[in-house]
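Input record, target 12 of the design panel.
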């Protein structure tokens, strides 16, 4: 795939704080990259570096082959950006806000109605933005971001304050744009938002990309031992599983969560239990969700890079 956004060894400091530290990432055109990480991981700074609103201290950035510092205006014309706290004109109506954005981007008049309808604020455009709820403000910011049909969408915590219906509209928009060849980068710390839409997950910590890849690739790398949820009429009969060949560990969490060396041994395990008279009520191989993957990646990365003890 053609490279859309590429960062090589990018760093940015604020005083003594290194917000981004040697960050390298590659987002192909027409794909969805999700920047995952806790607050302070460098996600917002990364978005600002891509648009050229921040200058890197080191490293290089290319957006469709352009340099955000030298070609910032050209890049921003191709970007739709939704920051965590979007700045809106409170004394103007929602329509006025969209009209102003349409004028800046030279978007057609019909784009205002289309963008407002997409996010369910078409009935509120006559109201002043000062009276908008948090969710309405976010939806207005999203409508403004797509009014010029951008090639790139940069979303920083885009569903903050949204109701479930509006949040789903945002995720549907991401799928729609990526499907039509747009490039999307979404920064979030909400794991469920990235589930099912990410072509690439970039786990960020302390300004670095600590791990990156497709969710299935990362699952294969960090969650090699499958987990099976198993239950029985008499739960005491499952206690023998811990000592059987191929069973790595078992833990009770509503039902028995059994970690095994390979999913291939599951039929034989089940057959042995049945032969022993165990009446099974549930056998469910656990699909690796992004949440499981995230915390397993974090655990393994901590084990590989332990923090030095703090001296008293």
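The sequence produced for target 12 reads:
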């Amino acid at each position: 795939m053609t490279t859309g956004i590429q960062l090589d060894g990018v760093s940015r400091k604020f005083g003594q704080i290194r917000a981004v530290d040697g960050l390298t990432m590659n987002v192909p055109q027409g794909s969805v990259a999700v920047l995952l990480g806790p607050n302070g991981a460098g996600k917002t700074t990364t978005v600002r570096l891509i648009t050229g609103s921040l200058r890197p201290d080191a490293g290089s950035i290319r957006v469709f082959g352009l340099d955000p510092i030298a070609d910032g205006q050209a890049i921003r014309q191709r970007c739709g950006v939704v920051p965590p706290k979007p700045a809106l004109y409170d004394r103007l109506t929602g329509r006025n806000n969209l009209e102003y954005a349409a004028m800046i981007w030279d978007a057609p008049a019909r784009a205002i109605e289309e963008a407002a309808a997409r996010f369910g604020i078409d009935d509120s455009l006559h109201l002043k933005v000062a009276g908008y709820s948090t969710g309405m403000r976010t939806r207005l910011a999203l409508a403004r971001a797509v009014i010029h049909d951008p090639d790139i969408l940069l979303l920083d915590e885009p569903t903050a304050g949204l109701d479930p219906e509006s949040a789903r509209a945002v995720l549907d928009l991401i799928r729609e744009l990526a499907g039509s060849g747009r490039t999307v980068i979404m920064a979030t710390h909400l794991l469920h938002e990235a589930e099912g839409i990410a072509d690439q997950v970039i786990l960020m910590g302390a300004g670095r990309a600590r791990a990156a890849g497709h969710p299935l690739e990362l699952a294969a790398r960090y969650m090699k031992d499958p987990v099976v949820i198993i239950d029985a009429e008499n739960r005491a009969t499952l206690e023998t599983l811990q000592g059987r060949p191929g069973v790595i560990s078992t833990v009770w969490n509503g039902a028995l969560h059994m970690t095994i060396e390979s999913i291939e041994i599951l039929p034989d395990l089940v057959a042995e239990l049945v032969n022993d008279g165990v009446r099974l009520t549930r056998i469910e191989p656990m699909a690796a969700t992004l949440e499981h993957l995230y915390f397993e990646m974090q655990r393994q990365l901590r084990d590989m890079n332990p923090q030095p003890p703090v001296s008293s």
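Residues 260 and 266 are 8 Å apart (CA to CA).
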